[in-house]
Amino acid sequence: MSSASVVNVVGIGGSLREGSQSERALRIALEGAAAAGAQTRAITGSELVLPFFDAAIPERTENARNLIEAVRGADGIIVVSPGYHGALSGLVKNALDYIEDLRDDTRPYLDGRAVGVAAVAFGWQAAVTTLDQLRTIAHALRGWPAPLGGSINSAEVKFDEAGGASEEKVVTTLKLIGRQVTEFAQSRKT
């Protein structure tokens, strides 16, 4: 593959706890993107510590500038959020709000980019409602949600430090999400 055809996929998610279940899920999805030929980057944990988004304040912290530049240069995005009380985490939502800074770009917001989404929650209800919210946000930001999304019940599935999970079908699903994002991005570049 030539460098012009290499796609960049940025993963956003996890929690403030390093190695959280949602961060591990994100890394598996990014492995799927890399296996399909993408260059990947994960923005997780402390990199997502940002002031509450306010469009009226033009100054941005270093973390905010890094996030926006990574998204600006991305051909595809993967977002994995923990489900807290039936919704995505404030940490992930605030990071996604910063995409508003791309509103005046030639390619505004997530226009023309595939967006893979997954939710990890302790129970099916929060996992499913969080996934639905992530899809809705991807649409609102003009992204193209990948056909497959992931709802992962962490009461039943555990991710390990080696990059796996207690259920292989979850690993397969997450890697497929990464592959779908990459393949869509590749098709847009040709």
Q: What does this 3D model show about the protein?
A:
The chain is an alpha/beta fold and 190 residues long. The chain has 5 helices and 7 strands, in the order βαβαββαβαββα. Strands 1, 2, 3, 4, 5, 6 and 7 form a 7-stranded mixed beta sheet that branches. Strand 5, helix 4 and strand 6 (144-145) form a beta-alpha-beta unit. Helix 1 packs across helix 5. The longest helix is centred in the C-terminal third of the chain and has 22 residues, at 168-189.
Number of strands: 7
Proportion in β-strands = 15-25%
- SS field, number of helical segments: 5
Task: Please provide the ordered H/E string of secondary-structure elements.
Answer: EHEHEEHEHEEH
Amino-to-carboxy terminus distance: 12 Å
Radius of gyration: 15 Å
Average pLDDT, rounded to a whole number, is 95
Low-confidence stretches: none
Secondary structure class reads: alpha/beta
Largest β sheet strand count, sense and barrel closure: 7 strands, mixed
Percent helix, as a range, is 25-40%
Shape category: globular
In short:
Helices cover 38% and strands 19% of the residues.
List keywords for this structure.
single chain; alpha/beta; 7-stranded mixed beta sheet; 38% helix; 19% strand
Give the arrangement of secondary structure elements:
Layout: E1 8-13, H1 21-35, E2 39-44, H2 62-72, E3 76-84, E4 87-88, H3 90-97, E5 114-121, H4 124-140, E6 144-145, E7 150-153, H5 168-189
Parallel strand pairs: 1-2, 1-3, 3-5, 5-6, 5-7
Antiparallel strand pairs: 3-4
Helix pairs in contact: 1-5
